Every structure is written in C-alpha cells, then in structure tokens.
C-alpha cells in the first residue's frame, strides 16, 4: 500500500509543480483563460436553462451581429498594448459609414467608396497618433479630440440616415455562406481575417514585438534602439483603419449610414479587449483574447434577449465583469513587480 501511494504522491506533486511553473511564466494568460471559462459557462448555463441556446443558428448569428465590434476590438488591442487608449473609434465608424452611404447615393462606385472609408479612418488615427507622440498630449485627450472631430464630420456629411442600395456593399451583410445549418457572412469572414492578420503581426513580426516592448517599458524600448515613435503612431493608424473597416461592416449589416451610429461603441471595444486579457497598462495581451472578449459580450446580449429582459442589463453585467478583470490585472502586475 505504501509503495503504491508514494509514486502517486510523487506524480501529484510533479503535476502541481509543473502547473505552478506554467502559471508563473504565463500569468498574463490568466485573464484570457478566465474569459474563456466565463464564455463556456455562459453557453452551458444558457443551454441548460433554455434548452435550445447552443444551436448553429445562434452561434452563427453571434459572429454576424458582432463582426463590427470584433474589428474595432482588434484595432483597440494594438493601441492598448502600447499603453494608450483610443476613444475615437466609435465616431470614426459612424463617420466612415455615413460617408460611404453619401458617396454611394451620389453615384460613386463601391470600389472607390470602400478605400475612401479606410483612408478616412486611418487619417483620424494618424492625427491622434501624432498628437500623442509629437505633441505629448495624453491619449485620452487626443483620442477624445478625434472622437468629437469624427462625430462632427459625420453630422457635416448628413444629419439624417442614408439608405444604402449598392449591391456590392449590401453583399457584405446579406450574403450567407452555408454549411448545413451553419452560416457565415462576408462581414464575419472579414472580421476573422482581421483577427488572423493581427495575431500573426503581433506574434511573429518585428513590429509586433516592438508593440509589446513599447507597452512594457517605453524608456527601455528607446534604449534598445527600437522605433518607438513610429510604432505608436502606426498603432493608432491601425486602430483608425479598423474603425473604417468596422464602418463598412456596420453599414453593410444595417443597410444604411447614420451619424449617430457607434455612440459608446468605443467603450464596448475597450471592455471586450480588457475582458479578453489585455492589460490597460500595456505590454501584455492577445488578439485572440479580444476575440473571446467580444464573444463574451455578444453571448451576454443574446442570453438577455432570450430572457426578454432590458438590454441595459448587458451594460450592468459587462461593468461588473470589467471591474473583476481590472482587479485581476492589478494582482498580475503586482505579482510581476514583486518577482522583479
């Protein structure tokens, strides 16, 4: 009996030691794992309660309904990883969307309109990045200026909703590629493609490593000879470009441009990124975590819709989750500082 128990005890201690080592080396993954666990619990709990929640139709709709938010979250991930913030993305999305609808209504082809949307979003991002880097304006204030600018430009383009009738733009939102009961729209494919490209850039390119270095310690990144200024500005440009793409996704999804679209969406994107495990202080986080954060946000919305409750409960639950994840982040940062 004793001889048998000793190897089992040794194996248990070995597993515990390996788990402790893994968690100490990958502490930044804890929020992402927690978000993934919450997502799984949401799905399982909703399936037990409703009985018909986990279906191909509902899961496919989850990506369709939140594709624009996912694209925004990817751009926001780049900015937050540098230690910044971008409050302009919701307004940029509305501006590029109403601009798209206006240009299409005046006879411009989609092949011209779509690049104009992307360039317009990138231009606002460039402005914010230059303010942050060369004029030393706090990211909050600089991006707030971008928010007011983009929203004002949206109202200059049109004060009312403009219906989109261009078949190319509508194709992005109305087409369904089906596999049995599963389906995906071009906007969903666009969102997943943006996630994939961003993940590759951040994990396997020099620019991605520089993003993490700048967010970890900007002064150390400068001492290592890294291009800090260029990296930070490009991060904001990427966020602006993603906002332009999100404007395309939302316009195709809704079939219209409207200057009041996206009010508060920048906060949803920030919440999704933080819930997905990206530290607000910068230097740690993953695009795939932001994907999980968006799915958690969308799943909560869907559960509340199934319950027939007010959508204001979505804000309440997301607020509670955000507080919890910020506390978790502070614990991770404090543990890292102690190890140093």
UniProtKB/TrEMBL annotation:
Q: Does the keyword Amino-acid biosynthesis apply?
A: no
The protein's matches in Pfam families, at most eight in alphabetical order, are given as:
BPD_transp_2 (PF02653)
Cell membrane recorded as keyword = yes
List the subcellular locations.
Cell membrane
Bilayer-crossing residues are 33-55, 67-95, 107-132, 139-162, 182-202, 233-254, 260-280, 287-307, 313-333
The record gives the membrane topology as: Multi-pass membrane protein
What keywords would UniProt list here?
Cell membrane, Membrane, Transmembrane, Transmembrane helix
Source domain of life? Bacteria
InterPro entries registered for this protein in UniProt: ABC_transp_permease
UniProt-recorded name of the protein: ABC transporter permease
